[in-house]
Amino acid sequence: MRPSGRDLSEMRAVSIETGVTKHAEGSCLIRMGDTHVLCTASLEERVPPFIKGSGQGWVTAEYGMLPRSTSSRMRREATQGKQGGRTVEIQRLIGRALRAGVDRNALGERQITVDCDVIQADGGTRCASITGGWVALRLAVNKLLKAGDIVTDPLISPVAAVSCGVYAGQAVLDLDYPEDSEAGVDGNFILRGDGALIEVQMSAEGSVFSRTQMDSLMGLAEKGVNELVTAQLAAVQR
């Protein structure tokens, strides 16, 4: 039934390679099927003005798609003089998601910026960015702990995200592009590793959905996130 031949509740193959850049305090290349995202985390001993003096840290994110991450070349947003609305929305989502897994008091007055650059897109780029972004964040925080710059681990729980939707009348897990482009219902589910919900984005795109279908999608999302958290923890322990 699925174009990829996967079962309804089957994730795409997931791999997370860490330490892929020389200079970033934390980095990884996450592959979810044919969606590949480079995630880096950078430490700065400063915070935005609106929390300066509060003793709290900040985690923020930037997101972008490389020109040939898609089937035809797209122009770099820098050449257009501004970011598009989709880009701004996604990077704000990534920042919100990652902050939900951080004790900002324990982080202290410093900022960690997570950059997510999509190398290749085949659906679910925001979900891959959040999942890989947490790995990069974890590695950067590990350096702070090892150096003694902080004494308490500020990361409460892993944060991961997965897409689910209704495709050909069936609830399916981890949409790739062929499914995403034709799904009657599309959703992104962001959870912590302890099961706490951070954000759910769901919309009917051609057909409405029932509470029963929504519950089915939530169940699939929980299964997918559990698998992603297992991959995250394995990656940061290598």
TrEMBL record:
<dbReference type="GO" id="GO:0009022">
    <property type="term" value="F:tRNA nucleotidyltransferase activity"/>
</dbReference>
<dbReference type="GO" id="GO:0000049">
    <property type="term" value="F:tRNA binding"/>
</dbReference>
<protein>
    <recommendedName>
        <fullName>Ribonuclease PH</fullName>
        <ecNumber>2.7.7.56</ecNumber>
    </recommendedName>
</protein>
<comment type="similarity">
    <text>Belongs to the RNase PH family.</text>
</comment>
<keyword id="KW-0698">rRNA processing</keyword>
<comment type="subunit">
    <text>Homohexameric ring arranged as a trimer of dimers.</text>
</comment>
<dbReference type="InterPro" id="IPR015847">
    <property type="entry name" value="ExoRNase_PH_dom2"/>
</dbReference>
<dbReference type="InterPro" id="IPR018336">
    <property type="entry name" value="RNase_PH_CS"/>
</dbReference>
<keyword id="KW-0820">tRNA-binding</keyword>
<dbReference type="GO" id="GO:0016075">
    <property type="term" value="P:rRNA catabolic process"/>
</dbReference>
<dbReference type="GO" id="GO:0000175">
    <property type="term" value="F:3'-5'-RNA exonuclease activity"/>
</dbReference>
<keyword id="KW-0819">tRNA processing</keyword>
<keyword id="KW-0808">Transferase</keyword>
<feature type="domain" description="Exoribonuclease phosphorolytic">
    <location>
        <begin position="158"/>
        <end position="224"/>
    </location>
</feature>
<dbReference type="Pfam" id="PF03725">
    <property type="entry name" value="RNase_PH_C"/>
</dbReference>
<dbReference type="InterPro" id="IPR036345">
    <property type="entry name" value="ExoRNase_PH_dom2_sf"/>
</dbReference>
<dbReference type="InterPro" id="IPR020568">
    <property type="entry name" value="Ribosomal_Su5_D2-typ_SF"/>
</dbReference>
<dbReference type="Pfam" id="PF01138">
    <property type="entry name" value="RNase_PH"/>
</dbReference>
<keyword id="KW-0694">RNA-binding</keyword>
<dbReference type="InterPro" id="IPR001247">
    <property type="entry name" value="ExoRNase_PH_dom1"/>
</dbReference>
<feature type="binding site">
    <location>
        <begin position="124"/>
        <end position="126"/>
    </location>
    <ligand>
        <name>phosphate</name>
    </ligand>
</feature>
<feature type="domain" description="Exoribonuclease phosphorolytic">
    <location>
        <begin position="10"/>
        <end position="140"/>
    </location>
</feature>
<dbReference type="GO" id="GO:0031125">
    <property type="term" value="P:rRNA 3'-end processing"/>
</dbReference>
<dbReference type="InterPro" id="IPR050080">
    <property type="entry name" value="RNase_PH"/>
</dbReference>
<keyword id="KW-0548">Nucleotidyltransferase</keyword>
<comment type="function">
    <text>Phosphorolytic 3'-5' exoribonuclease that plays an important role in tRNA 3'-end maturation. Removes nucleotide residues following the 3'-CCA terminus of tRNAs; can also add nucleotides to the ends of RNA molecules by using nucleoside diphosphates as substrates, but this may not be physiologically important. Probably plays a role in initiation of 16S rRNA degradation (leading to ribosome degradation) during starvation.</text>
</comment>
<dbReference type="InterPro" id="IPR002381">
    <property type="entry name" value="RNase_PH_bac-type"/>
</dbReference>
<dbReference type="InterPro" id="IPR027408">
    <property type="entry name" value="PNPase/RNase_PH_dom_sf"/>
</dbReference>
<dbReference type="GO" id="GO:0008033">
    <property type="term" value="P:tRNA processing"/>
</dbReference>
<feature type="binding site">
    <location>
        <position position="86"/>
    </location>
    <ligand>
        <name>phosphate</name>
    </ligand>
</feature>
